[in-house]
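Reminder to self: keep the SMILES exactly as supplied, no canonicalising. Ligand is flavin mononucleotide.
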Amino acid sequence: MTSGTRQQRYRDLMSAFPTGIAVVTSLDTEKQPRGMTCSSITSATLDPPTLLVCLRIGSATLQAVTSHGSFTINLLHEGGQHAAEVFSGPDPDRFARVTWKQSWSGLPWLVEDAFAMAECQVSGILRVGDHAVVLGAVNMIYQTTGTPLLYGLRSFAAWPQPVTSDRLPLCVE
Ligand SMILES: Cc1cc2nc3c(=O)[nH]c(=O)nc-3n(C[C@H](O)[C@H](O)[C@H](O)COP(=O)(O)O)c2cc1C
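Structure tokens returned for the bound complex:
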């Protein structure tokens, strides 16, 4: 099997594993907002609360996350597909095409397209092949009810069940 075929088989495999969708945001060295669409977010440890995200080597967002030392994950709701496309698309002026604000710490929040944001301090970076695995210690969570946006089989979908407000805190620090 050629490496191209192997990569395609791997892409097919992972496309059959649907996930939620987030936009990872941070600030570059000029304090300009940077961000990219990500599906590779996973919980790493519960104590301390730590998640991981895999970012492509060479990505402007990875550079910003690395230099700033912290980042936000903006979990997109069912109306956030446009934002997912903007933050994975070719237009470099991504933040001009969505509504966003700076949190108290200065990190960009996608306040209209996301139903939850978590701010993370970079606690480790592991370079593996063409991506960097970035560990983020979660130090702030803002969460509202919202139907999560999903991505799988190369298309977007909304979580199919009704979302109840049980045990969804509005803000946890
Ligand atoms: C649904 C979806 C999920 C994605 N997940 C990731 C991911 O987890 N990691 C990654 O590096 N790129 C991912 N991408 C691709 C990036 O969003 C895309 O390459 C983006 O342009 C990178 O931005 P930047 O390099 O300008 O920071 C995903 C794209 C889509 C559409």
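Points to follow up:
The radius of gyration is 16 Å.
The CA atoms of residues 43 and 51 lie 4 Å apart.
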